[in-house]
């Protein structure tokens, strides 16, 4: 059976179910999934509740068993957890590596069984919702936002969902310069910071290039952004960039362009929207995040984004004031850094400072969150070795990985970290 047929078949599971509990992950993909399923179940006239979690624990399974819903739907989470103690009927809509640890009471819809790697949790949830009712196609933007949050490529099934969003008029696609900061940075800064022209490596050379093609950098005394350019000016700029690249011997210009996915009604790119959803999760504003996902406004988006930036600033200041950075830095931040931010703080340190490897620890309820970042070590191997010793869960890749280890293992873990003199080197 094709994956899509399998998804469509799975929707029969809702028949005769009155009260459904949605359990979803706390990141952009999980919040998007929960929003899609909420709206879809509402349309079906079902009673439902939403629970957003960071992980599936035994306590959570117990909570579900006690609540005894007619059905529990796990979205963007569940596939890699042990659900064998679950006593109610369950449906997994997930894209994580399947472990198949459950009984006959659980049905798993996971594109990984079909070697479909691009789909995210929200993509699976969207396909499920679309099959329930074509009216749910207006939720397609959430299927895409979740995929972007999980850094999934816009190919295959994701591209199909993106086409749904475009056909519904919710997302407007355009070919555009592959530049970050189109609405926030001045034009000349955008051009040189994004390194799309080999010989433009300073603000002044960028200004010179733009003056040469008669693009006004300022309007009413204010710097213009790329978003401020007229269509004519944009065409002029693109052809000048290509000409300049050809002069410099470039033959392929694919990386100059990117597909721009704009939500006109919101006045934001879908990438920015996804970043805001992620911020809701990091700030522990789960249910506000689900609400925002279904009814986004730019005002709320800007407020949350600002709050998110300020939290990062606060934790970076704590790091700079309290931690002596060295080539191999271990930071036990305990309660000083929110576990949702320890990863991003470590990423920023390794990017901006003369640090080869940084291991950050932060208290996370009855777990310890570990974030590992390195310029040369294999962090995935490293955190997995910790989980092998102390239990918990790990994820990530060579440059950036993370783990959660039971708090009860704290002393042993710290002893182990103190002993480390070398880390697995990446091949
Ligand atoms: Mn996901």
User: From the alpha-carbon coordinates, what is the Rg to the nearest angstrom?
Assistant: 24 Å
Strand residue percentage: 15-25%
How would you characterize the largest beta sheet? 5 strands, parallel
Which consecutive residue ranges, at least 5 long each, have pLDDT under 50?
Answer: none
Which term fits the overall shape? Answer: globular
Average of the residue pLDDT scores: 93
Attribute tags:
Diaminopimelate Epimerase, Chain A, domain 1; alpha/beta; 427 residues; five-stranded parallel β-sheet; 18% strand; single chain; five-stranded mixed β-sheet; globular; binds manganese (II) ion; inorganic pyrophosphatase (n-terminal core)
Please provide a written account of the structure:
The protein is an alpha/beta fold. It folds into three domains: 3-167, inorganic pyrophosphatase (n-terminal core) (Alpha-Beta Complex), CATH 3.90.1640.30; 175-261, no CATH class; 323-419, Diaminopimelate Epimerase, Chain A, domain 1 (Roll). The chain has 15 helices and 15 strands. The longest helix is centred in the C-terminal third of the chain and has 25 residues, at 298-322. The chain is globular, with a radius of gyration of 24 Å. Bound molecules: manganese (II) ion (MN).
């Amino acid at each position: 059976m094709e994956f899509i047929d399998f998804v469509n078949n799975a929707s029969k599971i809702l028949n005769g179910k009155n009260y459904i509990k949605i359990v979803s992950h706390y990141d952009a993909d999980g919040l998007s999934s929960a929003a899609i399923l909420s709206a879809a179940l509402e349309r079906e006239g079902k009673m439902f509740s939403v629970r957003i979690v960071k992980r599936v624990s035994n306590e959570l399974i117990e909570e579900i068993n006690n609540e005894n819903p007619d059905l529990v739907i796990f979205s963007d989470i569940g596939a890699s957890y042990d659900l064998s103690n679950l006593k109610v009927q369950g449906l997994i809509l997930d894209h994580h590596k399947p472990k198949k640890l459950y009984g006959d009471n659980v049905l798993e819809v996971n594109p990984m069984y079909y070697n479909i790697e691009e789909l995210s949790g929200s993509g699976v949830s969207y396909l499920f919702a679309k099959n329930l009712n074509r009216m749910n196609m207006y939720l397609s933007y959430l299927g895409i936002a979740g995929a972007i949050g999980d850094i999934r490529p816009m190919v295959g099934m994701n591209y199909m969902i993106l086409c749904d969003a475009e056909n519904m008029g919710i997302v407007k696609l355009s070919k555009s310069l592959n530049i970050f900061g189109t609405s926030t940075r001045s034009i000349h800064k955008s051009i040189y910071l994004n390194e799309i022209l080999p010989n433009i490596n300073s603000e002044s050379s960028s200004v010179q290039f733009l003056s040469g093609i008669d693009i006004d950098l300022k309007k009413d005394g204010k710097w213009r952004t790329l978003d401020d350019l007229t269509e004519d000016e944009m065409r002029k700029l693109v052809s000048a960039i290509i000409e300049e690249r050809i002069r410099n011997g470039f033959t392929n210009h694919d990386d100059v362009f990117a597909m721009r996915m704009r939500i006109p009604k919101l006045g934001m790119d879908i990438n920015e929207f996804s970043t805001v959803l992620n911020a809701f999760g990091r700030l522990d504003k789960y249910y506000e995040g689900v609400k925002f996902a279904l009814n986004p406004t730019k005002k709320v988006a800007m407020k949350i984004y600002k709050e998110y930036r300020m939290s990062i600033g606060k934790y970076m200041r704590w790091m700079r004031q309290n931690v002596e950075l060295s080539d191999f830095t271990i930071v036990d931040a305990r309660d000083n850094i929110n576990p949702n931010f320890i990863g991003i703080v470590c990423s920023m340190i390794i990017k901006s400072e003369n640090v080869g490897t940084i291991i950050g620890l932060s208290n996370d309820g009855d777990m310890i969150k570990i974030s590992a970042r390195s310029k040369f070590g294999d962090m995935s191997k490293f955190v997995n070795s910790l989980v092998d010793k102390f239990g918990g869960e790990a994820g990530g890749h060579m440059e950036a990985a993370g783990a959660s280890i039971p708090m009860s293992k704290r002393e042993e873990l710290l002893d182990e970290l103190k002993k480390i003199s070398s880390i697995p080197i990446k091949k």
